[in-house]
Amino acid sequence: MEHIALYRRYRPTNFSEVIGQDNIVKILKNQIITEKIGHAYLFSGTRGTGKTSAAKIFAKAVNCENHGTGEPCQKCETCKAIDNNNIMDIVEIDAASNRGVDEIRELRERVKYPPTVGSYKVYIIDEVHMLTTEAFNALLKTLEEPPKHVIFILATTEPNKLPTTILSRCQRFHFKRLELKDIYSRMDYICTELNVQIEEKTLKLIAKNADGAMRDALSILEQCLSISDDNMVDYNSVKELLGISGDQLVYGLIENIIHKDIHSALNTLEQAYGNGKEIAQLVNQMVVCLRDMLILKVTNSSDNLMEASEENTNTLRELSTQVENELLSYYIESLAEMESKIKYSTLPKVLMEVLLIKLCSVGLSTNTVTNSNVEIAQDKISNRKPIEKIIESTQSKNNRQEERKQAKGNIDFETLCNTIKKDRPLIGTALEMGTCKEISDEKCSVAFNKDNSFHYNTVHKNRQYIEDQVKKLINPNCYFNCGTEEKGGDDFLSRTKEVFGEDKVFLTDK
């Protein structure tokens, strides 16, 4: 017996089986009942949302001998002939392979002839955006004034690529992504029909990974049935098939980022990758979890907005208390950007490792170095005795300048940052990453390197809050400003030139 894929076997045959598109179905049925049928329709929307299925049902209904309810009766000879593809009046054209002007000219010749059986000849042109400009021009006149017995139904996933002259001549219907509950209920019905035992959470997992497309959901379900034993689909097998990481692994990775534990984060990623988990899928899961955490912080309730299950909500709520809204938003934006890069990369794991290091480093001072680095630097300095005097000279000069600046105000920059960090940790940490140019009774000025845009943007967005703190801590008349500057070169060299003059300082290799 010939095997038929699930999405073909359970393709809707009447409007009542079309899920998630109630408004469109209602309009089409009313047009059939009142016999106010248009000559051209445009069905647009993402894949697997029912565009072609609705077009075929509509074509069958307008030719049905008993269409009083707007539904095809499925009993008359016309309905049976259409279901068996034994009628010439319903023509389905794939525009991807018939995109030239010659094919459209041939179509224009065929539409002149009346239908052989039904009331209408219906032309369904799938992926119509693939037609060439010349083909669209050839179709235009026919689409504008077709014979009374002809209906055109254009289907596309990219309506923005269609000429406005075509769009203006069609009744447009946008098929939205299917909701999770609609996909779940349809798969539950199919599993019951097939006598398949499957848990609710497994069906929801498949529905979630279908991305709003019924066809994708049924394709995944069919794969799951292929690896199941005795018509029983196991939850863990489905997760393995989809390359999905466990919830605890994802939560652990997010916790590592929040606590800035780079070593643990990289180890967790290595563990997931070693177990065959897809990096793209992992990034997607992290984005969803972080989004749930942000919603919990903003709304303080889960309601129907949460993607996570009820048992995982408390874990996410606890994690969300350890991080600020601004930082959560930054994590989500960074991961979403990475998701698009991974699609075209041959080294997704390397990109993910770099991103984890970047996310774990947010808020860490650039002056924080390891003990080994300090020792190496000290050894290098001790081997250059003539330069020590220069260092002492420049340091003493800087110290005197710093003392003068602090003498004018009531507080130094470090104390200002620490005070703000107690109330708003993210803002205080971001401010700390800048260079204090001046702090006095009149002004507090901070500059950021241009490559440090995240911290600059955080400070710039909250400059009014920072200025309020400056006025409280330093002087009511003191104002705050911040800006960016080019990343400096060798600060030590520039300071040395200031002390001795550019003509007296040379670089030599020892």
TrEMBL record:
**Highest taxon, organism lineage:** Bacteria
Name the catalysed reactions: DNA(n) + a 2'-deoxyribonucleoside 5'-triphosphate = DNA(n+1) + diphosphate
Q: Does the keyword ATP-binding apply?
A: yes
Q: Name one GO molecular function term.
A: ATP binding
Whether Metal-binding counts among this entry's keywords is yes
Family in the record: Belongs to the DnaX/STICHEL family.
**SMART domains under this entry?**
AAA
* Protein name per the record: DNA-directed DNA polymerase
Q: What class of enzyme is it?
A: transferase
- Report the residue ranges that make up the AAA+ ATPase domain in this protein: 37-179
What are the recorded Gene Ontology BP terms? Answer: DNA-templated DNA replication
Key words, A-Z: ATP-binding, DNA replication, DNA-directed DNA polymerase, Metal-binding, Nucleotide-binding, Nucleotidyltransferase, Transferase, Zinc
Known SUPFAM superfamilies for this protein? P-loop containing nucleoside triphosphate hydrolases (SSF52540), post-AAA+ oligomerization domain-like (SSF48019)
A GO CC annotation given for this chain = DNA polymerase III complex
E.C. number(s) listed in UniProt = 2.7.7.7
